[in-house]
Amino acid sequence: MLDNAERRAARVAQQDFMLRTWVIDRLGPDDTDPDWSPEALASDTLDTLTFTPAQAAGLSEGWRDLPLEQIRELRRHKNLTAHLESLVGHLSPGPVREQLVAWTVTRPLLP
């Protein structure tokens, strides 16, 4: 049951991130409301990730040989970063933006 709860939470978070990104893209950001703030969305995204881009990239090299749970975790990271290519264009230069850009490079490597 716990496994299903974790997968459901990741799916809900991914859908939330995609919706928020879509609204920001179509209607523009609103820094007075955290739901539509690119910076808040960037922070929320990074808070859900347990690997760094470098860790995920390292694991992805031999992902077929990893235990199933680690493969699932890499897949979760891929799903939770699906919105980043659109989001980074709304962020000011800085460390958070650079982390997200690193994730956009890492994401295609993940299973």
Structural description of this entry:
This protein has 111 residues and is mainly α. The protein has one domain. The protein is built from six helices and no strands. α3 (53-60) packs parallel to α6. It is globular.
**Proportion of strand residues:** under 5%
Per DSSP E runs of 2 or more residues, the count of β-strands stands at: 0
How many domain modules?
1
**Quaternary state of the chains:** single chain
Summarize the structure.
The protein is built from six helices and no strands.
Secondary structure layout:
Layout lengths: L1 H26 L10 H11 L4 H8 L7 H13 L3 H4 L7 H12 L5
Helix pairs in contact: 1-2, 2-6, 3-6
Main attributes of the structure:
globular, 6 helices, mainly alpha, single chain
